[in-house]
Amino acid sequence: MANLKELSEILGLSQTTVSRALNGYPEVAERTRKRVADAARKHNYTPNPGARGLATGKARTIGHVIPLSGESMMNPHFSDVISAVGRVCQQRGYDMLLSVVDEAEHLEAYQKLKADRRVDGVIVHLPLSDDPRIDLLQTLNIPFVVHGRTLGNEDEYAWVDIDNRHAFLEATRHLIELGHRRIAFMNGMADSAFAHLRREGYGHAMGEAGLKVDEGLLSNGEMTEPLGHSEMMRLLDLDEPPTAVLCSSTVLATGALRALQEHSLTVGKDVSLVAHDDELSFMLADTGDTRMTVVRSAISKAGAAAADMLIDMIEEEKVPKSVLLEAQFIKGNTSGPPHPPDVGH
Amino acid sequence: MANLKELSEILGLSQTTVSRALNGYPEVAERTRKRVADAARKHNYTPNPGARGLATGKARTIGHVIPLSGESMMNPHFSDVISAVGRVCQQRGYDMLLSVVDEAEHLEAYQKLKADRRVDGVIVHLPLSDDPRIDLLQTLNIPFVVHGRTLGNEDEYAWVDIDNRHAFLEATRHLIELGHRRIAFMNGMADSAFAHLRREGYGHAMGEAGLKVDEGLLSNGEMTEPLGHSEMMRLLDLDEPPTAVLCSSTVLATGALRALQEHSLTVGKDVSLVAHDDELSFMLADTGDTRMTVVRSAISKAGAAAADMLIDMIEEEKVPKSVLLEAQFIKGNTSGPPHPPDVGH
DNA sequence: TTGCGCCTTCAAAGCGCTTTGGCTAGCTTT
DNA sequence: AAAGCTAGCCAAAGCGCTTTGAAGGCGCAA
Prior knowledge:
six-stranded mixed sheet; disordered C terminus; six-stranded parallel sheet; 345 residues; 12 helices; elongated; DNA-binding; homodimer; 43% helix; alpha/beta
């Protein structure tokens, strides 16, 4: 509760010695260190991080820039990542600064973070296929780890990602093996890197089976429940509706399920559904009759890994190895042979 | 990019004058002020917030403590509130510090925030009926606004809440008027204040209609999709299942809908559903055939109000008036007369 | 005894800002 | 012409810490 000066006066030592004792420097006698530690605890002294930051230039804080476009709020995938990052931060003694900005000026936000020297590094969320933030952060010379990865220059920086391409390759193959030909795909925003990679995986599986991709079955957008619903509605209204649907998120899938319900269709029979499962904390788990067929990879795990990497990077000043996590394919009961069977043609 | 000293040297002025000029103090000539402002812009000087904080004792930052219990992550209601708060912060030039901690030590987190002087105030989320944080924050003497309110001492501090009691009074009355007698209620965590008030509203409506509350139809818990699902399953398995269900969140309702689907029951006919709609950014909106009957109040609006209050409080050093927002009842098509009619007993 | 090195400790500078308490020049009063 | 204001500016202290450079005290070798 007091400050260094008072504490050092109480102890009859200089501020230097007290500071060094507390920070584990070697040139202080063990007896003294103990005495200092005890006194600090007794007066529950805790160094002022602001002052320390001023003196050291380190803030022991990492930042997130959260761009909000129009009315939209933080998306739920995001918040699970932030929680995971936060947990790591707590364990390693870091704080987290959130900078909520208009999408239009989110690049300036990074400049500001740099100028303000309030953070030692940032985590970049939801990279685009070609993301201007990478360049920006490199020239600003602020340590960063990307959750996800861009396409093309991904060896120039540190990232944590899952193997999106392979996950959707597997998912699509699964549906093809069941006999599906018309497979729809509700994907994330078109410019985001993960959506691109997933689309690639999907395309590859279709190609290797000799199937043409029907662009009318593909869509991109925010991964919300309402969008999953409306997109499924659109698909069902098609002249030739798909017999199976891939969803880039269980949130979309939930909306899709609702649409099927409204059409009195049975998932896994009338229409098959396979989703990517981020293991969101509040979303549909393996409960009840519907066990969704998914490719699963906990988004919180990736978030935690990214946080650890960033802090390593900050403290050890070297760029850590990027990490590619695999998603796990899990067969549930929302996928089955097409019905009515679409064989021949 | 430089610092005050350099800037003042460039200008041939003292740091004092430059600082005063930039901060709008009166004792500096208009011409000088202009000259300083221009130079600051040209060299894109921006004061170091850490140093400023050290000097002034103000951090221009507000904090959130996010307790995580076990594996669970930040819940989605939470993240929408934080986004809204963040937006206000940005507009008013504040930053946001997130402190993610184990539930068990979340009180210590406030002490730490105080000791570290990194925030000027905090927003308290999800108050319990009788919440120890109120006392703690009062004795710590750290400005705070509660999103929600405790029961009993709510005149001792500033809060923003919605009229939960009245919202659920209305919702329940609606179902009773339709003819329902057995009305289930999936509520939030039992110790949270909002759940208590909603329960009161529900109880009052039942009472005034001369209906007994069947405790077997009530439940409390985290407001997740899986829980909505499993709880609905439990209700449907009852000897005498309810004809209508109230949900404290559309997230729960989504799970409940899924359960109904699995039982091939039609919502609004076989079972009526009324939910509280926080207008979460990514959840079921008025899309498609299912327009849920709801009591609606945007949680982001409350969050923004809380943020504004807190900053007012910090800057003007007086406690603002608390705010009670009304929820709006909106009839959708998920509620209708009981079926089979439950008339006469 | 002198000198060297090692172990502890310290005074003081510095991080970048705000703010107190002057100081000076120029004007008005009387 | 002396005294009193005021507007405009400044030097320096202080916020609470870290860190550099130095110094005091001790044991030991010569």
